[in-house]
Amino acid sequence: DVKVTQSSRYLVKRTGEKVFLECVQDMDHENMFWYRQDPGLGLRLIYFSYDVKMKEKGDIPEGYSVSREKKERFSLILESASTNQTSMYLCASREGASSYEQYFGPGTRLTVT
Amino acid sequence: QQQVKQSPQSLIVQKGGISIINCAYENTAFDYFPWYQQFPGKGPALLIAIRPDVSEKKEGRFTISFNKSAKQFSLHIMDSQPGDSATYFCAASETYSGGGADGLTFGKGTHLIIQP
Fold this sequence. Notes:
The complex is a heterodimer.
Chain A: E1 4-6, E2 10-13, E3 19-25, E4 31-38, E5 42-49, E6 56-57, E7 65-70, E8 73-78, E9 87-94, E10 103-104, E11 108-112
Parallel strand pairs in A: 2-11
Antiparallel strand pairs in A: 1-3, 3-8, 4-5, 4-9, 5-6, 7-8, 9-10, 9-11
Chain B: E1 4-7, E2 10-14, E3 19-25, E4 33-38, E5 45-50, E6 56-59, E7 62-67, E8 72-77, E9 86-92, E10 105-106, E11 110-115
Parallel strand pairs in B: 2-11
Antiparallel strand pairs in B: 1-3, 3-8, 4-5, 4-9, 6-7, 7-8, 9-10, 9-11
């Protein structure tokens, strides 16, 4: 079974803090994704990565950056957290661009106060 | 611009009934249409998916109907059970000519409750 793990289930940070959300997958997948999920808005793509050190902006990249130094790990960075970034953050992985199914982690609920 | 519109936002169905959730898309380049199921406290999990070369796909009690000309697709859950109570998301993505595929564009979700 594919396993996608996220470093924290719940996180509380203060406005202006730098926040790191970590995601690890154990199936040697090439592609990884970060989404945020908000009530009534569904899931929205923040960034994705085709391969190590490669990244592409999604639909809502503003205020976020990402890092992928190793194939199994994809980090989402909030350089200066703001209250409007309070959300559920979901990481996903996919075997490769020619495959379609994305496997999601359990999510990190981030609260910025 | 919302590229995938999902309805209804919430749905209550009696046990044994048929649950129907609808989605409409705008981007004619989309060529992969999955449905994801999410239980509270869990990440979404793929339920069933369809490509536009077929009009219907069935897996157990779950069926996707796809209408390419209308740019619509729907999820039907037959003999709905209380264990089906969850949030359901439709999604879409496109495959690029070079073989790469983009991230998924999701609908806003449907909160489904199956009453015993």
